[in-house]
Each structure stands twice: as C-alpha cells, then as structure tokens.
C-alpha cells in the first residue's frame, strides 16, 4: 500500500535508496566478478564477446544509453544501444560472439521479447536485466540479472529505472572482471562508489523541496526542453519522458551539442530549459561545453534550471535555478541526477491535478508490438 504517501509514485521515488542497496547487495564474488541470478553461458562465452548491443524500450532504453558509456569506457568493447521496436527490423549483424543485453522491468514487453528472440535465432547470447522473476524475457535469456526494485505500481518508472542503472553498472563491471580489466584501479574505485550511492540518493531526496516549489510554479508552461552531454544526455531524455507521460506536457530531451543544429530556434523568452550539468572535476572540457550551451539558451531568454554537482560554483551565476547533487564519479551521476527530474515531473503533474499513478493512454506492461 501507499504507506501514507499520496501516490504510489511518491512512495516509489522515496524507496530508491533501499532499491539500489538491495540490487547491489551480495552481488560481488571474490574475484571481482558479479553473481548473476541465472547463467546458461560460461565465463568463456563472456570472454568471447566482441560486440555488445543493448536493446530496450522507454525508460529502460534510457538506462541502456547510460550503460553504453560505462561499458565502452570500462570494458573497451564496442556497444550499441537500440530501441527494441527498431532493432529487429533493420537486420542487425549478430553472431555467437555478440552479447545482446535486453532491459525490461516487466520482463513481458513484446517489442523487447521479439528482439530477444531475433537475437537468439541469430545465435547471439542474450543477458536480461529484469525486475520480474520468472517473466518471459528472463526465462528465454541465456543469463539474467534481476533488479530488486520490488513491485512498481505507478505506471511511470522510477525505482525500476534507477535499479536498471545499478544493474547495468554491475554488468559492465562483470564484463571488465571476466575479460581482464583495463582500468583496474578505476573499476575498484567504482565498486566502492556504487556502494555509497544509496546514501547519496537519500541526500538528494532530502533536498527536494525547492524542486517541488519550482514545479508548482511551472504548472502553466506548455513545454520544456531538457539537455545534457555524455551520461547527462540520457538523463535529459528520461526527464523529458517523465514530463510527457505524467504532466502531458510537450517535452524534448536531446544532446546539448545538438542545440545549434536546430532546436535552439525553439527558445523564446521564458522557455524552460532543464540542463543536466556534468561534474566540473575530471572532465572539465565537458563541463565548459555545457556552460557555453547554458549561455547560448540564456542569451535567447530561456528560463534555465540546472542540475549540478555540489561545489560547482561556475554554473549558478548563469542560471535561474540550480539543484545540487552530491559528488560521484561521472559515469554514476545518473543515479543522482535523474531523481530531481522524477520529483519535478511528479509535482508538476500533481499541481495540474492529473492522475499521477495512472496517466492516460498508458499501461504498465506493453504486451503488444
Ligand atoms: C516510462 C515507462 C516505460 C517503460 C517501457 C519499457 O516511465 O515506464 O517507458 O520503461 O514501456 O517497459 P519494460 O521495462 O517493462 O520493458
């Protein structure tokens, strides 16, 4: 039940620290690999992989987009991410040494299931990340890693999405471990940092009142743009999807670098632009680029809301509102930066009096193609 929360979605947002902690718990073996829940393939099969495809729909696809950055960086394997509804129809090049990772909360999404069957027909190995034990997708896969979000009642994915991110990181680390790690020190540090993320998500959740306040004031806006670079790009896509599905607002997420190639013409005085800002530490080039994107939209009158890392004192003077999230390695940042965007969409929809848990026209599990 709702445990005193007004909506299941609020309850599920609040459960995220627990959901991530559960998903990470007891997963590491002594050699640094992770313990998968079902494995019908050998370590040798994992070592033979020469290409990774990640296939999913909706929010699960956004989790896959984040995974691509992590897997390519940690494992140095080429990795493509594709929408399940497109994957099968473009005749992807697959063989025994291809690993296809399918991500599905419900484990029953028909587009994803069809992509999985197509991949297996082409002899590719399939690893499923799912939240539903015994669902069709995990049953038909060669290996399974279950997220432990618990049942998600609200139609819009929140805790399931966050645990998919955690599971993707685990798979990336597993591949790095079984294949011989290139950046061993970095991977060990990431494992430790991952373990600390539930606490940091709690800190984000405790600081959400200004975000709610902002959302309530924005109830009259008719559209919003979300931009980011690197792993901030999929987070921007996810933030926009949440706003569309919950608040029935036209929202678009895209790579900040694309602004000048078209979307910047959408900016008018007062257009809300949400910017997912990368950490200024480490990848400062990326940070500089995002700051100049902020200046570009500000110059055209946008109302800019930035999600930035604690201690980032460069961004604040350039934007209308800034929400800070704790420090974390760049690749893990989506576990924190996605949270204010969930809260924002939920509160904005609530301010409009909409049905948060059951948005119109949507179903929790999409079992038709
Ligand atoms: C968005 C949302 C959907 C699902 C998508 C895939 O909030 O919930 O976009 O992420 O329908 O569903 P699963 O993960 O069950 O395959």
UniProtKB/TrEMBL annotation:
Catalytic activity: D-fructose 6-phosphate + L-glutamine = D-glucosamine 6-phosphate + L-glutamate
Self-association and partners: Homodimer.
Active site: 364 (for fru-6p isomerization activity)
Enzyme Commission number(s) of this protein: 2.6.1.16
Annotated localization: Cytoplasm
Function: Catalyzes the first step in hexosamine metabolism, converting fructose-6P into glucosamine-6P using glutamine as a nitrogen source.
Protein name per its UniProtKB record: Glutamine--fructose-6-phosphate aminotransferase [isomerizing]
Residue span relative to the full protein: 248 to 616 of 616
A Gene Ontology cellular-component term: cytosol
A Gene Ontology BP annotation from the UniProt entry: carbohydrate metabolic process
SIS domain mapped to chain residues: 42-181, 214-359
Keywords in alphabetical order: Aminotransferase, Cytoplasm, Glutamine amidotransferase, Repeat, Transferase
Superkingdom classification of source: Bacteria
Keyword Transferase listed: yes
Native source species: Stackebrandtia endophytica
GO molecular function, one term: carbohydrate derivative binding
UniProt keyword Cytoplasm, yes or no: yes
